[in-house]
Structures are given as C-alpha cells and as structure tokens.
Amino acid sequence: MSVSVLVVDDSAMARKMLIRALPPDWDITITQAANGSEALAQYRQGGIDVMFLDLTMPEMDGYQVLETLRNEDLNCLVIVVSADIQEAAQARVRAMGACAFIKKPVDAERIRTVLKDYGLLV
Amino acid sequence: MTIEFIGEDQREALQEVANIGMGQAGASIAKVLGEFVELSVPQISAVSAAGIPAALAALAGDGVASAVRQAFLGELRGEAIVIFSEHSAHDLAELLACADVLDGPAERELLLDISNVLVGACLGGMAQLLRTTIGFSPLSLLADQVPTSMLLQADEISARCALLVEVRFRLEKRAFRSHLVMLMADDAVAALRRALDRFIEEL
C-alpha cells in the first residue's frame, strides 16, 4: 500500500529539492504544506504516515509542530529536514520526538538510509 | 522606486540558498561560542542606494550598533555587512572567557573574528551550492557603537541600487543579536541571476 508523505517547508524550492531526492522506487502519495499550521491541519485530516518537517518557518515553526504532536499524543513518523544543523538543534528535535534529522542541502543517499532504518523501504 | 532585480523563481532559490548558508554559519558560531543560536527566515529585498542606510537601520532596530564589512569577489561579488547590537561585543567577550581583561580594541577584534566566521561560513556555503568560488577581502570595522541610522552613509555606496539579503542570528540566553546583510550592486546581480538559473535547472 502506498505510504502517505507530508512535506512541510515554507520554501517551495526546498520542498521541490526534497521531493526530487526521495527514492524513485518508494511507493508514496505526497502532500505539501507551507508552514506548521497547514501541516497540522493536513495531519488532522488523517492518513499521514511520514512527515518531512523543516524547522525555520514563519507562522508556526517545526519545533511548535513537534510540541503539538507530542502534547496531543499524535502518531506520525517525523523526519526533520533543516538547514539549522547545530548539534543542539539535532538533539532538541530528537528529544521532542523526531525520529531522524536530515541536513540541508538534502542528500538522496542519506534519505534512503534513514527510510531503510525505519523499515519504510526495503 | 520599485526595482525588479530577480524573478520569483530566482528569489525563492536565493532564499533557500541563503537559508542553507545561514544554517552553516549558525552552526559555526554555535560551536565557537558554545551557545544555541536562533535563526530566522532569510529576507530578500531590492533597495535604492539612497535607501540602504535606512534599510540597515530598520534591521538593526533602535539604539546603537556596530558593523563590520567585508567585500566578496568572484563570479558573485558584493559586500557583506555584519551588524551587531549594542551588547554583542560584551557578550562575546564573556562567552570567550576574557571579559575582565578586554578593552575596546580587543572587543572590536572579537567582532572582526566572529564576522569572519559568519561571512566565511554563510557565503562560502552559498557559493558551494551555486557551484562557484568566492574570495574575500580583509575585514574592516565600518561603525563602532553608533546610532543605527549612522551605520552606513549614503556616500559610501557606489551602486545605484542593490539587492539586499539578510539573515539574523540571536543567542537564546543573551542579548547578542547579529544580522548578516549581503549587498550586491545592480551590475553584479546579472551574474547572480545566471548562477541561480543554473541551480534551478540542476534541481
């Protein structure tokens, strides 16, 4: 069955860069959101399996999305994709429930490895 | 005066490239200072030469600030200006554990050092993404604790108008605030547009 993927980034260019780097053999349906509030609205409609989440965004940032997901006990595999590559930022998002951190500019091989680690890709 | 320097696709690409450069610069100073650095969404605008001093003042806010300038050269050329809020130099001195021995010249030296790290990492990262090389001129102190409206004088700007790219860094637990501004004159923007088009095509 196709995996439902939500790509969250305020930059359309960044969403495009990420989508191009996803494995071509991964059976997915992609939806996109331009900020945290849109992402949560999409999420609440149901059926999102994996969320690729940017951190630095206007309106509602990635940290706030992680916090909301945690507070509302929402289940979703969140992979943070960020240009904020500070070690402390990586540790923070992991503590907040993100399962992996991918640095921008995104690397297709790194994405494949993360997806394999979580059994999303064989 | 409205200046249409770059197209919408180019602006979006530049914003994302600046975002990645900013992230690398933020991680570099986080390591040097041992503090968490808060980043913002990069802002891009086109301004007339006469409007540049006011644009910088608007970024820096009220009060006094210091600024360091460094020219960059190559396919991409322009000037990087790093603006530091009033207490930034003192924060840097404290963080680098030399506050009690620091005088004015030594604090100014710290501003130059941190600017060097920020500009090198940010613009270096951007140049790498755009597959071009960039060189830097020596840094110089442009303004030392002056009212923000006086950071840059209109007669110090040779261009008719400029593209302004701004990223900001804040330390979570301190007063330190810094803005990195890239100014590219109108005649240098053509090369930037070409580099951005290449970048977009390769996506």
Number of alpha- plus pi-helical segments of chain B: 5
Strand order of the largest sheet of chain A: 2-1-3-4-5
What percentage of residues of chain A falls in helices of 4 or more residues? 25-40%
Outline the low-pLDDT stretches of chain B. Answer: none
Shape of chain B: globular
**CATH overall fold name of chain A:** Rossmann fold
Structural class of chain A: alpha/beta
Sketch the topology of chain B as an H/E string, one letter per element: HEEHEEHHEEEEH
Radius of gyration of chain B: 16 Å
The end-to-end span of chain A amounts to 14 Å
- Gyration radius of chain A, rounded: 13 Å
Number of strands of chain A: 5
Instruction: Tell me the major beta sheet of chain A.
Output: 5 strands, parallel
Strand content of chain A: 15-25%
Strand content of chain B: 25-35%
GO biological process, one term (chain B): chemotaxis
Organism (chain B): Candidatus Accumulibacter appositus
GO molecular function, one term (chain B): hydrolase activity
Keywords (chain B): Chemotaxis, Hydrolase
Account of the protein in words:
The complex is a heterodimer of chains A (122) and B (203). Chain A has 122 residues and is an alpha/beta fold. Chain A has one domain (3-116): Response regulator (Rossmann fold). Chain A contains five helices and five strands. Chain A has helices spanning 12-21, 36-44, 62-71, 87-95, 108-117; strands spanning 3-8, 28-33, 50-53, 77-82, 100-103. In chain A, α4 (87-95) links the parallel β4 and β5. Chain A starts with a strand and ends in a 5-residue tail after the last helix. The model of chain A has no long low-confidence stretch (mean pLDDT 94). With 203 residues, chain B is of the alpha+beta class. Chain B has one domain: CheC-like (Chemotaxis protein chec, 3-Layer(aba) Sandwich). Helices cover 42% and strands 29% of the residues of chain B. Chain B contains five helices and eight strands, in the order αββαββααββββα. In chain B, strands 1, 2, 3, 4, 5, 6, 7 and 8 form an eight-stranded antiparallel beta sheet that branches. In chain B, β7 and β8 form a beta hairpin. The longest helix of chain B is centred in the first third of the chain and has 26 residues, at 8-33. The model of chain B has no long low-confidence stretch (mean pLDDT 90). Chain A binds chain B through residues 10-14, 16-17, 20, 56-58, 82-89, 103-105, and chain B through 9, 12-13, 15-16, 19-20, 22-24, 26-27, 30, 36-37, 39-41, 129, 200, 203. Chain B: This is CheY-P phosphatase CheC. Chain B: Keywords: Chemotaxis, Hydrolase. Chain B: Its EC number is 3.-.-.-. Chain B: One of its GO terms (biological process) is chemotaxis. Chain B: InterPro entries: CheC-like_sf, CheZ_family_phosphatases. Chain A: The modification 4-aspartylphosphate is found at residue 54.
